[in-house]
């Protein structure tokens, strides 16, 4: 699981559209400050390029065999000062099926626990 999520971070941080598409399910469920819901792999790849987000993993909190919360330092082109966030990752068939970004570890762990029930 960690290997897939590490590859996901590499694809996002490099803006590699094709690699990002290959690493996510169709659809992938996303959650962030601007919305939530299922999107296609192409829409996901467009978002990573358009947003310019960079996510540096800092700490991993496994929830179950398919779910982990990763604390990350996030930066954007117009906001280079790192902001700590936490993302709930759910995997399915070796791909990222959900990337649910929350503003802090506590809310991400709460969401991950609810999803694991």
Overview of this structure, please?
This is SnoaL-like protein. InterPro entries: NTF2-like_dom_sf, SnoaL-like. Pfam families: SnoaL_2. Residues 6-98 form the SnoaL-like domain. It comes from Labedaea rhizosphaerae. Helices cover 36% and strands 49% of the residues. By secondary structure, it is of the alpha+beta class. The protein has one domain (2-115): Roll (Nuclear Transport Factor 2, Chain: A), CATH 3.10.450. A 6-stranded mixed β-sheet has the order 2-1-6-5-4-3, with helices on both faces. A hairpin with a 2-residue loop joins β4 and β5. α1 packs antiparallel against α2 and α2 crosses α3 (41-51). The longest helix has 13 residues, at 2-14. It is globular, with a radius of gyration of 13 Å. The two termini are 19 Å apart. The mean pLDDT is 96.
Task: Give a quick precis of the structure.
By secondary structure, this protein is an alpha+beta fold.
| Strands ordered across the widest β-sheet | 2-1-6-5-4-3
Continuous helix count? 4
The structural domain count equals: 1
Structural class: alpha+beta
Portion of residues within helices: 25-40%
Element pattern in H and E: HHEEHEEEEH
Summarize model confidence as the mean pLDDT.
96
Organism: Labedaea rhizosphaerae
InterPro entries: NTF2-like_dom_sf, SnoaL-like
Protein name: SnoaL-like protein
Domain SnoaL-like: 6-98
């Amino acid at each position: 699981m960690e290997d897939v999520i590490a590859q996901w971070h590499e694809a996002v941080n490099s803006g590699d559209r094709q690699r990002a598409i290959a690493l996510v399910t169709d659809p992938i469920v996303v959650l962030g400050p601007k919305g939530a819901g299922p999107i296609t792999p192409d829409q996901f790849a467009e978002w990573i390029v358009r947003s310019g987000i960079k996510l540096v993993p800092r700490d991993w909190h496994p929830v179950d065999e398919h779910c982990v919360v990763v604390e990350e330092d996030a930066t954007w082109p117009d906001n280079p000062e790192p902001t700590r966030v936490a993302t709930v990752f759910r995997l399915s068939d070796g791909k990222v099926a959900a990337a649910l970004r929350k503003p802090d570890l506590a809310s991400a762990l709460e969401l991950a626990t609810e999803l694991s029930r």
